[in-house]
Amino acid sequence: MKSKRFLSLLLALAMVFSLFAPQVVLAAAVSEDGSYKNVIFMIGDGMGENHLRLAVQEGYDLFMVENADLRGQSKTRSLSDSVTDSAAGATALACGVRNTNGCVGTYSIDPSGILLRPRSITENAIAHGMKTGVVTTDSTAGATPAGFSAHVKARGMAEEITDQQLASDIDLIWGAAVDATNREAVEAMGITYVSNKAELEALAPGSRSFGQFSGSFWRPAPLDNSGLPTLEELTVKAISLLNADNENGFFLMVEGAHIDKNSHATAEDGTADYAEKHERVAAAVKGFDNAVKAAVEFAREDGDTLVVVTADHETGSLYLEGGVYRFHSGSHSGANVPLLVYCCSDLITESAAVPNRSIPGRIAEKLGWSSLEVPKADPGSFLTKLKNMLKRS
Ligand SMILES: [Zn+2]
């Protein structure tokens, strides 16, 4: 029994070191010239290469494709599976580590149960004095926004995610409403609560805000979205708030969640009529594209802003078959996803496929940081658990 515990301990320590290893690789000195003041990091949830092609086939011009300065791919597998979920995908993109599907901003070391909390790019930005924002068309407690604003062991912990978001120093967190909180509770913390377009437009720089829009605001017509902002409008407003009177720059994450949601819906068989699903997915891609266009237009005008667009994973195993794009599953796939870069010529090599977890480190370098901070374990829980294990062995 003793030797088994000792082996567990050795395994745990080995995994701690393997966790820190990728962070060391991320460290690299960057000259002042190559650095940016602001970063806008945009994630089309579930957006594979063929989702872009489908949108073009459906008649849309895609700004994000036509205007990218660099175009490569992100390799999306998680630690536990060749197919990632949004939680592990977001953790890789936010924290620079691969973790187990379902975990958000945490890294569980089995069999010890020790939970590490790698510090996210958002937390790094705050530590560097930058303003920060998290904007999504998913619930604010969804896996992708949570990866950039919280650390929990399971993606379903909406209350804990919301508590952490409200207790954080993130300037704005906007998305579809969650049941975990309400206007009274948010306002009692001195945070401005917004739930419609008029309240959003009235926001002025300098105060923190928590956006809780109707859960259906991302859905395409015929649902009534009047009075609710589009992702493009949210992006434009977020940029204007974060950029106002700001010498230290900002980090903004924007997620278009509806590409994934529409691609999940009902896996079709070979005989299905694709017209409606194609229309919805293409419209979702275009909605995200409009937000990318707004961000890139700001960045080009500003001259000191890096824009990076990618996805956390592909959804639906969408590929061309007899001239028709067909969904081959109702779930995620392990396919590489687009990685598009604007206002920068060397974040990646043109056409390169890079691991998803390398992206936040690459962004960190472009901000002139020496690296992402070394992942920060919860010292109380880590040391206590380690001590207890040593005692037992
Ligand atoms: Zn996802």
Describe this structure in words.
By secondary structure, the chain is α/β, with parallel strands linked by helices. The protein has one domain: 3-Layer(aba) Sandwich (Alkaline Phosphatase, subunit A). It is built from 14 helices and 17 strands. Strands 7-8-6-5-9-1-10-15-2-16 form a 10-stranded mixed sheet, sandwiched between helices. It has a 3-stranded antiparallel sheet with strand order 3-4-17. Strands 11-14 form a two-stranded antiparallel sheet. The longest helix is centred in the C-terminal third of the chain and has 28 residues, at 275-302. Zinc ion binds next to helix 4.
Coarse shape = globular
Mean pLDDT: 85
Integer tally of domains: 1
Strand order of the largest sheet: 7-8-6-5-9-1-10-15-2-16
Pick out the low-confidence regions: 14-32, 374-380
| Number of alpha- plus pi-helical segments | 14
Structure at a glance:
By secondary structure, the protein is an alpha/beta fold.
List keywords for this structure.
about 400 residues, alpha/beta, Alkaline Phosphatase, subunit A, ten-stranded mixed beta sheet, three-stranded antiparallel beta sheet, 14 helices, 17 strands, binds zinc ion
Architecture blueprint of SSEs:
Blueprint: H1 2-26, E1 38-44, H2 49-57, H3 63-66, E2 70-75, H4 86-95, E3 107-109, E4 114-117, H5 121-127, E5 131-139, H6 143-147, H7 158-167, E6 172-176, H8 183-188, E7 192-194, H9 197-202, E8 209-213, H10 231-243, E9 250-256, H11 258-264, H12 275-302, E10 305-310, E11 314-315, E12 318-321, E13 324-327, E14 332-333, E15 337-342, E16 353-355, H13 359-366, E17 376-377, H14 379-392
Parallel strand pairs: 1-9, 1-10, 2-16, 5-6, 5-9, 6-8, 7-8
Antiparallel strand pairs: 2-15, 3-4, 4-17, 10-15, 11-14, 12-13
Helix pairs in contact: 1-14, 2-12, 10-12, 11-12
Residues 45-46, 86, 89, 260, 312-313 line the site of zinc ion.
